[in-house]
Amino acid sequence: MIDLYEVAGIKGVFLSNKVVENQVKTYITYNKGRDWHLLQAPATDLQGNKVYCEEPYCSLHLHLHVSENPYASGNIVSKDTAPGVIIASGVVGPELSSVNVSIFITSDAGNTWREVFQEEYSVFFLNQGGSLVAIRHTPLPIRHIWLSFDEGRNWDKYSFTSSPLYVDGVLGEPGEDILIMTIFGHFSHRSEWQLLKIDFRPIFEKRCTSEDYVTWQLHNEGEVCIMGMKRIFQKLRANVRCVKARDQYISQMSDSCTCTEADFECDYGFERQVDGSCISAFWFVPSASTRDCITGDSFFNTTGYRKALSNNCTEGSLLKYSPRQQKCPSQAPRGLQLFTSEGTFVATLGRNVTFLVFLEEGLSLMTSMTVDFGDGTAISYVNISSIDDGVKHIYNKVGIYQVSATASNHLGIDKVFLYLHVSCHLEQVQLSAPLVVIKDKAVNFTTTLRPSSVGTVTYFWWFDNKSEPVVTLDGAITFTFSREGSHIVTVQALAGNIVHQDQIRVAVYDYFRSHPLVFSSNLDEMNPGVSEWREDIGRVVKTCIVQVGHKDNALFPGLPTTAEVFIVPERRSRDRGMNEEWAHLDQVLFQQIIQKLLVNITPLVDGSDSGHSGTAVIMLVSVVLMGLAVFVIYKFKRYSIAGAVHTLWTRPGELFDPIK
């Protein structure tokens, strides 16, 4: 429905514009919307010519807009003191239109209509609805008004001004029994407003008496029982020019009718069919209304119908439409449903989760319920009705839990499952991998989460600046780099609706050399475990490497204190193969790094402990000997040395780069 209008003076009668197959059509109902039908077009037009209009392809359609302007009549008007009289603008045809609009009047509440004007007019009630006044709705100045004493069948033309007036509005005097109307407007677009008061009292001859009234019975296409009542109204006779007194409002007589099928509408969960019957909708389970019914008691079971609201019919022979009393059946539980109050399958660690349980069929008062939360905790209830507000539970561990609900009575059991994902908020993800790797050789990348357990995590990996990521459910992946150079590897961890990211830079070469360094444990004893201490030690190591002409390095905190020096050959040396010159320079460079570390690291160790100092010297000397062994192995091969040195300081499970 796009417009709805309630007819004044007659309860239950409504007019509505509906969209039917992309066409706007006007319908009327006499029983508060239970039944709707199209408006019958007038038999003849204003000139008396026959109107050929056959439903449903052609009918009368009305504009149902009520005026918000108190000085205009609007597109449709009706009045309590003029029962059955409706005045509206509209068209005859297949649908509602704003072209060729005419004014139509009905005197029998919409059963039959007459065309009274072929242009738009504003129509007002006068003399408590006993007379009608029409003023042409036009932007041009006018001098005349029309007056009708027979509900619009005939109109008399009256001049209300000697000079044409541009009408802006019409105002009735207070009190419906006063026959005075004020028209205001202006004689020209530059003139001031003019107020013209019209006194209709001289037109009326006398006060109305009972002999001036006739009876009129409301009907719907001949059916006089409407909303369970026969209603008879009193109306003025046609062309009687008498003034209705204040206490002579239209009286109404009513008689009850025996209930028929027309007095009932479809009950909740039932739908009207083409043949007029009410059939259960596909989504409605009629037996669900008896789940609170106790065995041995009785209940009123719907037949699919209910008496329309405000219907006053009396019980007759059609009791088949009334609810019937039945014994409460004994039913096994069926249609058990379990879901969270949020309607989702995720929950947050440490917060209350509310589970709702619903049983479609079964005796809820006689049915026990057990809810198993899947974490070793379960709770039972004597009957389902005691948990209408839901069951609350808090999970203390991250994971996926199988939650179940079991309903049982002496007739059977029903069970339902729900899988709940419990997670906590992800705070950080750290990516770990070697800083220098060999081309075309698989490299392992691993991640560390904080906190370590957050539930189901999805990982997105980007390699070699590719636009599409590799998606995994594992925090580790293996990748092979196919070209040399510096590569940025990025990982994103998605937990719930939270995403964190980390990335590292990896250097890829065809070949490189590495030398491990092992420091005295006395150095570890001086380690307070703070980042400032690691920065100090790292600064010394970096200074040593820089002093021998190599600037690139990366440092990592950890215990035991270790380091690894990577030496990468230049491309021209790799093209010629490993040679004795490269091995010699490798050894010279490595000895320079050892000397610098020996000089700078030793003062950081407590000199009073000669044992530890001696151990440090021994460890460093062992590194020198290892370097000499490398020199012997490659004494017949010549290499040149590139200026790329990487230092790696590691501790298992921790990854940090304090110096950039």
Task: Describe what this molecule looks like in 3D.
It comes from Xiphophorus couchianus. The chain crosses the membrane at residues 616-634. Keywords: Glycoprotein, Membrane, Repeat, Transmembrane, Transmembrane helix. This is Sortilin related VPS10 domain containing receptor 1. It is found in: Membrane. With 660 residues, this protein is mainly beta. The protein has six domains: 4-205, no CATH class; 210-256, Complement Module, domain 1, CATH 2.10.70; 261-328, Wheat Germ Agglutinin (Isolectin 2), domain 1; 334-423, Immunoglobulins (Immunoglobulin-like), CATH 2.60.40.10; 428-507, Sandwich (Immunoglobulin-like); 512-569, no CATH class. Helices cover 11% and strands 39% of the residues. It is built from five helices and 47 strands. Strands 5, 6, 7, 8 and 9 form a five-stranded antiparallel sheet that branches. The protein is elongated, with a radius of gyration of 48 Å. The model is unreliable at 548-557, 572-582, 604-618 and 629-660 (pLDDT under 50).
Task: Summarize the SSE layout with pairings.
Elements: E1 3-6, E2 14-20, E3 23-29, E4 37-38, E5 59-62, E6 76-79, E7 82-93, E8 102-106, E9 114-117, E10 121-126, E11 131-136, E12 144-148, E13 156-159, E14 166-172, E15 180-186, E16 194-199, E17 206-207, E18 213-217, E19 225-226, E20 229-236, E21 242-243, E22 252-256, E23 264-266, E24 270-272, E25 278-280, E26 298-301, E27 305-307, E28 324-327, E29 334-340, E30 346-348, E31 352-361, E32 368-372, E33 378-381, E34 391-394, E35 399-409, E36 412-423, E37 428-432, E38 436-438, E39 442-450, E40 458-462, E41 470-472, E42 476-480, E43 485-495, E44 498-509, E45 513-518, H1 521-525, H2 531-547, E46 562-567, H3 571-576, H4 580-601, H5 610-633, E47 645-647
Parallel strand pairs: 17-21, 30-36, 38-44
Antiparallel strand pairs: 1-2, 2-3, 3-4, 5-7, 6-7, 7-8, 8-9, 10-11, 11-12, 12-13, 14-15, 15-16, 18-20, 19-20, 20-22, 23-27, 24-25, 26-28, 29-31, 31-34, 32-33, 32-35, 35-36, 37-39, 39-42, 40-41, 40-43, 43-44, 45-46, 46-47
Helix pairs in contact: 2-4, 4-5
Subcellular location: Membrane
InterPro entries: Ig-like_fold, PKD_dom, PKD_dom_sf, Sortilin_C, Sortilin_N, VPS10, VPS10-sortilin
Pfam family, one: PKD
